[in-house]
Amino acid sequence: MRTTQQIKPMAPKPTSIWQHHHILDVDDFTREEIELVFQTTQAMKEVLSRPIKRVPALRGKTLITLFYEPSTRTRLSFELAAKNLGADAASLSAPASSVAKGESLIDTLSTLQALGADIVVMRHPQSGAPYIAAKYVEASIVNAGDGWHAHPTQALLDLYTIHEHKGNFKGLKAVLIGDITHSRVARSNIWGLTTMGAEVTLCCPPTLLPAGLGEQHHHFPLVSIEHDIELALDGADVVMALRLQLERQQSGLLPSIREYIQLYQLTEARLARAKPDALVLHPGPVNEGIEIASAVAHGPQSVINEQVTNGVAVRMALLYILAGSQKQ
Questions:
Q1: Interatomic CA distance for residues 215 and 203, integer angstroms
Q2: Domains contained in the chain, CATH given
Q3: I need a surface site. Which of 5, 64, 120, 291 has the fewest CB within 10 A?
Q4: Dihedral class, residue 18 (left if φ above 0, else alpha if ψ from -120 to 50, else beta)
Q5: Half-sphere exposure (CA, 13 Å, Cβ side) for 57?
Q6: Pairing mode, strands 223-225 and 199-203
Q7: What phi and psi, each to the nearest 5 degrees, are found at residue 160?
Q8: Cα angle value 37/276/45 (rounded, 5°)
Q9: Residue 167's closest CA among 38, 30, 21, 298?
Q10: Rounded-to-integer distance, Cα 270 and Cα 282, Å
């Protein structure tokens, strides 16, 4: 007889822990909710290890990706995640849609709602756009990046990758290097890492540090600032290089790319100041030779490719949990 594949080991029931209809950022996630994502992701990785990497957990659900900005990893991983769970997945690229004719975000979302979307994964250049979307549709909104504000699913896959290697976060020193001001990944990771008990050090030129994050005046007791990269890396357990958005040089925030490379590039010599088993992460896309040396990006401590692989499993987990919350 034909059998239907199930998710085994079965992911925990989310009803008593999970409190979200949308995923907008991780700033309101509890440690228990993040741990639920980890446990569910492990179940999804077991599914992905099978010869047939699909289960019918989301059969009958419709997911639509709505991207107003280019994306490769995030968009593809969400579409693969939905299909692996048996959902119907469709993609809408804003420049090739009625948005190009002036259709508003709310009108676009109303159309997607009328078409039966259960989950809308959206990326938007304006910070806060997913929060507006969440007020106007019954579908679950998943923020796949909004302006400089947040990228929650990237942060969760980063956290899961660290969790796989390090287990407990408490006492870990995580160093984020690069353009903190304009990095939605940095913001979400700061929330997630500190929620899990890690200590975060931010390292960047003063011009690329968000206002209000000075050493004496910020609201994150587990976050410190160190502008000297060698000092920042001393004893680090986790090192994340952030993509340098080259347009920042044109806006006068950097004297030159050459100077940034000299002062802030993650090199093998600088990485040697971290712990021998320190992990190297990067959210991508990577500007090799600028924020990170090629030898480090492809070196033995790099888990950059693991981040991409884990992205599918983490997003499968999030879709599975969200679908479960919609039944309540």
A1: 12
A2: 31-151+309-326 (3.40.50.1370), 153-307 (3.40.50.1370)
A3: 5
A4: beta
A5: 26
A6: parallel
A7: -65, -40
A8: 25
A9: 38
A10: 16
**Which amino acid, residue 224?**
S
Q: What is the pLDDT of residues 14-45, one digit of tens each?
A: 557 899 999 999 999 999 999 999 999 999 99
Q: In what order do the strands lie in the sheet with 119-124?
A: 88-93, 62-67, 119-124, 140-146
d(CA 185, CA 148): 8
Q: Tokens in use for 87? A: 């959902």
208 in Cβ contact with 182 (< 8 Å): yes
Residue 306 CB contacts under 8 Å (≥ 6 apart), including other chains: 161, 164
**Per the structure block, which two tokens stand in for 51?**
């010869």
Q: What angle do CA 124, 134, 119 make, to 5 degrees?
A: 80
pLDDT digits (tens, 9 = 90+) for 214-234: 555 456 778 999 999 999 999
Q: Tell me the angle at which helices 152-166 and 31-48 cross, rounded to the nearest 10 degrees.
A: 80
pTM of the full structure = 0.92
CA distance 62 to 60: 7
ω into 56 cis (within 30 of 0): no
Q: Locate all alpha helices (DSSP H) within the chain, ordered by sequence.
A: 31-48, 73-84, 105-114, 129-136, 152-166, 184-195, 229-233, 247-250, 257-264, 268-271, 294-297, 304-326
Token pair belonging to 35: 């741990």
Residue 266 DSSP one-character state:
B
